[in-house]
Amino acid sequence: MPEITVHLLRHGEVFNPDGVLYGRLPEFHLSERGHAMAALVAEHLQKRSDDGAKLVHLVASPLTRAQETAQPTAEALGLSIVTDPRIIEAENHFEGSKVSRHEILKPRHWPYFWNPLRPSWGEPYKQQANRVMEAVQEARRRALELGGDGAEAVLVSHQLPIWVTRRTAENKPLWHDPRHRECTLASLTSLVFAGDAVTAVRYSEPAAALLPGAATTPGA
Q1: Residue 144 lies in a domain
Q2: pLDDT tens digit string along 27-38?
Q3: SMART domains of this UniProt entry (predicted)?
Q4: Would the CA dihedral through 134, 139, 142, 144 be positive or negative?
Q5: Residue 97 falls inside a structural domain
Q6: Could you tell me the residue range of the domain that residue 79 belongs to?
Q7: CA 130, CA 214: separation in Å to the nearest integer?
């Protein structure tokens, strides 16, 4: 049975001086550090390609930060970027807000906290995982068509959709503590498939050298 790997790449650091939860808002670009992160990932993937890896398919969320993260990899590997809305960021009631304890405790937000396991303040975890896994399976099939056994695809997405997709692949509950997500900026969460079944999940941080001091925004 052919083995295919689909890498879920989180975008790099975003220029966000006001510290808002940007969600699906348009025109949030990578910071200077974010562009450097994207370049490091591209170098990492190009080296793997030079060493024999068959990286044949590149997909990105339609949001600006994902497209900008994908661009250096497209140039390094000579691939076109396919845009897939299924791997976009999660919907969130707090989009555009500065999420803080003071903001969350305002009475107008209370109706959105009735079920934190779903979560009730945004797109359900299961819905996110389902749409991303559909895109992953399509990318897996396309990589097989383009490169055969051992081919690989890269999908540039966002922290929460990547994390819940990983937990689905590992047969773990989707509810979780956002502070414990293993999905740093410009990290790779790699799903290894035999046929259409996930046989392994791997994680790496090609841009780890740039993580110290990087901006953080509350998770969706």
Answers
A1: yes
A2: 899 999 999 999
A3: PGAM
A4: negative
A5: yes
A6: 3-210
A7: 30
> pLDDT tens, 174-219?
999 888 999 999 999 999 999 999 999 999 999 999 999 998 765 4
Q: In DSSP terms, which residues pair with 201 in a beta bridge?
A: 191
Closest CA to 60 of 155, 138, 133, 135: 155
**Alpha carbon of 76 to those of 7, 26, 47, 87, 128: distances in Å?**
16, 26, 10, 22, 30
What CATH number does residue 32 fall under? 3.40.50.1240
Residue 203 inside a domain? The answer is: yes
Quick check: is 215 in a domain?
Answer: no
Q: Are 89 and 25 in contact (CB under 8 A)?
A: no
For residue 28, the number of C-alpha atoms closer than 13 Å in the C-beta half-sphere is 24
**Number of neighbouring beta carbons within 10 Å of residue 154:** 27
Structure tokens at 207: 């841009």
Count of domains forming the chain: 1
Residue 57 and residue 86: Cα distance in Å, rounded? 16
Place of tokens 């068509």: 145
Task: Sort strands 188-194 and 3-10 into parallel, antiparallel or unpaired.
Answer: antiparallel
